[in-house]
Amino acid sequence: MDQQSKPKFDKKKWREKKYDRKVQAKDREDKQKFILKQKLQRQLKKENPSAYPLFNPDDLRSGAESSYQEKPRKLSQIKMAQLEYKKKQETKQKMREQRLKKKEEIAQALQNYRLKKLETNKVLNKKTKRGQPLMKGRMQLLFEKVKQTVGTSS
Q1: What's the rounded Cα separation, in Å, for the pair 114 and 64?
Q2: What is the mean pLDDT of the chain?
Q3: What pTM value is reported for the model?
Q4: Interval 11-24: pLDDT, tens
Q5: Which residues of 48-78 are buried (b: 16+ CB within 10 A; e: fewer)?
Q6: 140 with 123: CB under 8 angstroms?
Q7: Where are the beta strands (DSSP E) in 30-116?
Q8: Would you say residue 116 has pLDDT above 50?
Q9: Binning pLDDT at 50, 70 and 90, where does residue 35 land?
C-alpha cells in the first residue's frame, strides 16, 4: 500500500537536478521568468486597477468594504532597528524631562524652605533696646502654628 501511494525515487533525476549545470540554468531561467511575470502583473495592476475586480480604489474612497484585504507588511530589519532606536530616544528624552522637572521642584521647595526659615529667624532674633527678645513676634508665630493645626484637623 505504501509503495502504491509513494512514487518511486529516481536517483538519476535527482542527480541531474542537483549537479547538472544545464538543469540548474534552466531552473534559474524559469524562476526569473516567473519573477518578471509577477512584476509585470503588479505594474499592470497599478496602471489599470479597474481591470482587476478584486481591488477597486473607488470602493476604498467611498467607504464600502471590498473583498480585497491587504496583508500587513513586514518591516525590514533596518526599519525595525530605526523604530526601536526612535523609541529608545523618546524614552530617554522623557526620562531627561522628568529628571529636570523633579530637580526644579526640589530647588523650588528648597528655596521656599530657606525663605520661610529666614523670615522666622528674623522674627525670633528681634531684640529690644536692652537686648531682650521680643515676645510679640514669637507669639505671632505660635498663633500661626495653632491656626494651621486647627485648619488642617477640621
Answers
A1: 68
A2: 84
A3: 0.42
A4: 888 888 888 888 88
A5: eeeeeeebbeeeeeeeeeeeeeeeeeeeeee
A6: yes
A7: none
A8: yes
A9: very high
Q: What is the distance between the alpha carbons of residues 66 and 58, in angstroms, rounded to a whole number? A: 10
Instruction: List Cβ neighbours of 27 (8 Å cut-off, separation of 6 or more).
Output: 17
Grid cell at residue 145? 502654628
> What is the Cα–Cα distance from 14 to 28, expressed in whole angstroms?
17
Contacts of 106 (CB under 8 A, 6+ apart): none
Cα–Cα distance list, 66 to 8, 43, 48 (Å): 47, 21, 17
In angstroms, the CA 100 to CA 71 distance is 44
Residues 100-121, mean pLDDT to the nearest whole number: 96
Report the run of H or E that residue 124 belongs to, with start and end: helix 77-125
Residue-wise pLDDT tens digits, 46-93: 887 666 655 555 554 555 454 556 667 777 888 889 999 999 999 999
* Cell 470602493 sits on residue: 59
